[in-house]
Amino acid sequence: MAKMFDSCLVRQCAPTLAGLKLGNLFCMDAVDGLLLCRIMSRWNEILNPRGVYARILAEKKGRYYIYVFRNSLLCHLCESSEVRSFLNGFGYDRFDVESLLKCFQTRMAKSVCFPHEVGVFLGYPLEDVRDFIVYGGKNYKQIGCWKVYNDVQNSMHIFEVYKKCNKDLWNRFEQGMPLDLLTVAS
Prior knowledge:
Elements: H1 2-17, E1 23-29, H2 33-47, E2 52-60, E3 63-70, H3 71-78, H4 81-88, H5 97-110, H6 118-121, H7 126-134, E4 142-143, E5 147-148, H8 152-174, H9 179-182
Antiparallel strand pairs: 1-3, 2-3, 4-5
Helix pairs in contact: 1-8
């Protein structure tokens, strides 16, 4: 059973596990709450020593939204005055990791879909997150892991790196490599 859940984690979060991305957000459908708590506890036991954390952000209609992130990269994000100013506009008023996550969790629970600032927590370029909001998701120049409004060439390179990472980690997982060895320490 653990391998089934681990496969979901690897498929959804390979760039974060590899240390290439701040975070990933994914859904798990209709899992028993107690089982999910055991899964999350196991993941955190394995991943936390490597600097990666998993957290349930919301439950909506039997779907659990799980955020997997690199704590060091989220700490670094908290230091940016530009990011602080942006998030402040959405009601974020404290910028330590735990406060950011609590506010994000509250906003996830209240949102019909996703709060607009979700891209910041996934490591998307702030300019693209801002433009996504301004243009209502339209008028983008390219689409991949996010809608690109600005640096197309660099974003396309990042998409390619993530694609290769996904393939590489999945192959190693399929060959039996455990989560702790798949996860780069930070």
